[in-house]
Amino acid sequence: LQDAGVKPTGPGEGIRLAIKADLRLPWNGLRKLRRYLREFGDPLESESTTRQQVADELPFPLLSWEMPLFDKGGSVVMCPVVSFENVAEVILHYIQLNEDAGLLTWRDGVIPDDEIWVKVGGDHGGQSFKFCFQLVNVEHPNSLANTVPFIAFGGKDSPSNL
Fold first, then answer.
1. Based on CB atoms within 10 Å of each CB, which residue in 44, 141, 146, 159 is the most buried?
2. According to the 3-state scheme, what is the secondary structure of the chain?
3. pTM of this prediction?
4. What's the pLDDT tens digit per position in 59-70?
5. For the chain, which ranges sit under pLDDT 50?
């Protein structure tokens, strides 16, 4: 925004989470935006408030625990892990949301009419590794908007950790 010469006009309460979701900003990108807006007297709500909004809006319970993983040096360390309590329930809910919105497709018969295809994969970024799922039965299955993380841990994606 700053490089483009755009000046803020005063976002309302609760806008931070919408900005993060709509612009697909990582938390550090949102922090930079908040610092920029603060220069103009329009601070967004705090990150802890925004993270609490995310937690409050999750329709399914989360589990968190620690598990032993290998660090860069090969030593075993305890790392935090978070996941949905019931991943199958989350996937079924996501399918239902897409069906209700009329977004499911069978790709002109490539996918059988009685099947829903779900891809599972993972990605390491920053200090964490995330397992995600994507519905293949949507228009752009590989897009960020159609990628749903269901477990994350604070470690590398080494064969021993996976």
1. 44
2. CCCCCCCCCCCCCCHHHHHHHHHCCCHHHHHHHHHHHHCCCCCCCCHHHHHHHHHHHCCCCEEEEEEEEECCCCCEEEEEEEEECCHHHHHHHHHHHHHHCCCCCCHHHCCCCCCCCEEEEEEEECCEEEEEEEECCCCCCCCHHHEEEEEEECCCCCCCCC
3. 0.69
4. 888 899 998 988
5. none
